[in-house]
Amino acid sequence: MGRYDNMSEKRIPVIIDCDPGCDDTAALLLAFRCPELDVRGITTVSGNVPLDKTTYNALRVAEAIGTDVRVCPGADRPMFREAVYAPHVHGEDGLLGIPLPAPKRKASFYKAWDFIYEEAAAQEGELEIIAVGPLTNLAIALAAHNDLAGMIKRIVIMGGAAQGGNVTPCAEFNIYVDPEAAGMVMKSGIPLCVCGLDVTLKAYLTAAEIGEIKALGTPQAELFAAVTEQNCEKVFCPQGAPLHDPAAVLFAADSSYFTVQRCWMGVETTGTITRGKTVTDCWSDAQKDPNVELVLDVDRERFAKTVKRLMERY
Ligand code: RIB
Ligand code: CA
Q1: Whole-angstrom distance, CA of residue 180 vs CA of residue 136
Q2: CA angle, 313 as apex, 309 and 314 as ends, to 5°?
Q3: What is the pLDDT of residues 26-60, one digit of tens each?
Q4: CA-to-CA separations, 107 to 56, 70, 103, 211, in angstroms, rounded
């Protein structure tokens, strides 16, 4: 069989909304080799670095992957707040200065939110979004197109945390950057799967596992290793490099080795200390109506094996 072993089953049409970003880059490398996924396009958002850099990075990573799907830029700042970036994690350029060649093509003139709407219509209710950056593009898409919510099958989000945080003691970066946008998505009624820090800090690769991928020797494997080996989050995950965004992609492709709990989730938008906290009702007397599938755990060995198997496809 060719590159995709199970072409017989219908592949899931997805758009990847991202802010490349090192782990976004790893997520893109994996997504385009998941046999279950049909990546219809990439949308970019201000997050780890400003929009011009996340878009530039998405274009050059797409070239490294060998895909010509559309790259559609979106929001250059959160809906109501000043932009927050993470150069201390991803470098000023968003890719730790890794010498990845400049892209030959330009980004699409289509805005992210309009591309999402157009593709949702084209996919006739089957489109899924894998959102691994701040949720600004999705919130704008929902505001601009009032029938969109009924056209999207599912959103798999890397963001939030039932417990803890990585920007503050109670907020994860993607939600912290644009809590209002996240709140709009949480209230949209669209089926949501939330891969927060609860699972992504368990979805790590050890240095040895990263070395095995690097040893594959392809340019894509070397890029994967380069964006993951400089694990800048040892404080959160001393065992290895947490693959936040790749966890959302692999969950979207095959959730069978992840643990999920249906619960209510809301976003704190008015607090100062609690800005961006994903308030999660896993167990309380409140028993609020559930609106998300919260991903709480993963079979890490299988996750690591899947990552390597996918990278072997390059
Ligand atoms: O908290 C981790 C998330 O924030 C990841 O998506 C990473 O790329 C950053 O955007
Ligand atoms: Ca990201």
Answers
A1: 8
A2: 130
A3: 999 999 999 999 999 999 999 999 999 999 999 99
A4: 8, 7, 10, 33
Find, among 251, 134, 133, the residue nearest to 199 by Cα: 251
Cα Rg for the chain, rounded, in angstroms? 18
**How far, in Å, CA of 133 to CA of 245, rounded?**
8
Tokens of 88: 């201390």
Per-chain mean pLDDT for the chain: 95
- DSSP state, 255? G
Q: Which is the closest atom of ligand 1 to the Cα of 158?
A: 6
Neighbour tally for 87: CB within 10 Å: 14
pTM: 0.96
User: What is the predicted pLDDT for the residue at 238?
Assistant: 81
Q: Residue whose CA is closest, atom 7 of ligand 1?
A: 23
Distance CA 21, CA 17 (A): 12
List ligand 1's pocket residues with C-beta within 6 A.
19, 21, 23-24, 47-48, 132-133, 158, 166, 172-174, 244-245
Give yes or no: 244 in active site.
yes
Kindly state the average pLDDT of the residues 96-114: 97
Q: Torsion over CA of 298, 159, 26 and 207, rounded to 10 degrees? A: -50
Tokens 């069989």 found at: 1
153 φ, ψ (degrees, to nearest 5): -70, -40
269-311 pLDDT, tens digit each? 999 999 999 999 988 877 789 999 999 999 999 999 999 999 9
